Amino acid sequence: MSGRVEPTSRKAAGGSIGLTVAYDGRSFAGFARQPGLRTVQGALEDALRTALRREVETTGAGRTDAGVHALGQVVSFEAAGPDLPEGTLVRSLNALSGDGIVVRGLRHARPGFSARFDAISREYRYRLAVGDIAPLFLAPFAWRVRGHLDGDAMRAAALHLIGEHDFRSFCVAESADGHRTFRRVETVEVLEEEQLGEECTVVRVVGNAFLHSMVRTIVGTLVEVGAGRRDPVWVADALAACDRSAAGPTAPAHGLTLWSVEYPDEVWL
After folding, report:
1. Domain architecture of the chain: domains with CATH
2. How far, in Å, CA of 41 to CA of 64, rounded?
3. Which residues are catalytic?
4. What contacts 35, CB < 8 A, 6 or more positions away?
5. Cβ atoms within 10 A of the Cβ of 39, count?
6. What phi, psi does 44 have (nearest 5°)?
7. What is the end-to-end Cα distance of the chain in Å, rounded?
8. Are 60 and 45 in contact (CB under 8 A)?
């Protein structure tokens, strides 16, 4: 979604608002509000309450875990009459939300818009700092993996995850009980990049929706292949098993970033 802000525009009554939000996961106990803990949702709702002088209930596109970052999280809430001009509201939220969180933009949406249920795809990116030299600038945002990873083997393994599958093996076991665990994964790429002058491997995953810790488990599983501990075809076997113990470990939270969320054009006003 766009980060464009019109400084004088006002919201008409009866619609919704979508905020594009970035945050440093180290500052929060996850996205979802939790009593007594600092969370992204809690910080935003406190800021909205102060700025708009009313109670505001928000919905996030993804319920990221503690330590997971975001560049393009989308958060929706219902408007109520002529709220503050867009530019004023964005500035107010950035002043009130505290450290570690930035509202990057705002868009008006049709009434009833849900950042979660109206999303058609979500993109996550996971950074791996591979090698014997520890990262400096990327350290808070990358999992350090010593030694070597075979990128070609990881890419071959990732092909088994493309399409619609039952990803029960790739999520927190307790979260799958009684729930449908089929998801559609459109893209799993393993890329070599330089960021802030440091080399890193980036695993880019795009899908319609994700289960609890699904992306981190995908990454942990691909690292097992890249490190030579497993063959690429093992990923297909793990997927077919529908058993969390069949797949690889869950990668650490701090390497993961919710990169962007896509919506159909018709939700925006």
Report:
1. 16-118 (3.30.70.580), 121-259 (3.30.70.660)
2. 10
3. 65
4. none
5. 20
6. -65, -45
7. 12
8. no
Per-residue tens of pLDDT for the chain, all 269 residues: 544 443 434 444 569 999 999 999 999 999 999 999 999 999 999 999 999 999 999 999 999 999 999 999 999 999 987 777 889 999 999 999 999 999 999 999 999 999 999 999 999 999 999 999 999 999 999 999 999 999 999 999 999 999 999 999 999 988 888 889 999 999 999 999 999 999 999 999 999 999 999 999 999 999 999 999 999 999 999 999 999 999 999 999 999 999 999 999 999 99
DSSP-derived secondary structure letter, 79: -
Q: CA 185 to CA 257: how far, in whole Å?
A: 17
- Rounded Cα gap, residues 172 and 217, in angstroms: 9
Question: What's the CA gap between 69 and 202, in Å, rounded?
Answer: 15
pTM of the model: 0.92
Cα separation, 267 vs 118, in Å, equals 8
Is residue 253 within 8 A of residue 216, CB to CB? The reply is yes
Packing angle of the helix pair 151-158, 214-226 (nearest 10 deg): 130
**What are the structure tokens assigned to 46, written together?**
């406190």
Note whether 49 and 55 are within 8 A (CB).
yes
Coil/strand/helix, residue 72: strand
* Alpha-carbon span 41 to 60, nearest angstrom: 8
Give CA separation, 81 vs 44, 47, 84, in Å: 20, 18, 9
**Please, which residues have CB within 8 angstroms of residue 153's CB and are 6 or more apart in sequence?**
225, 226, 228, 232
d(CA 105, CA 79): 16
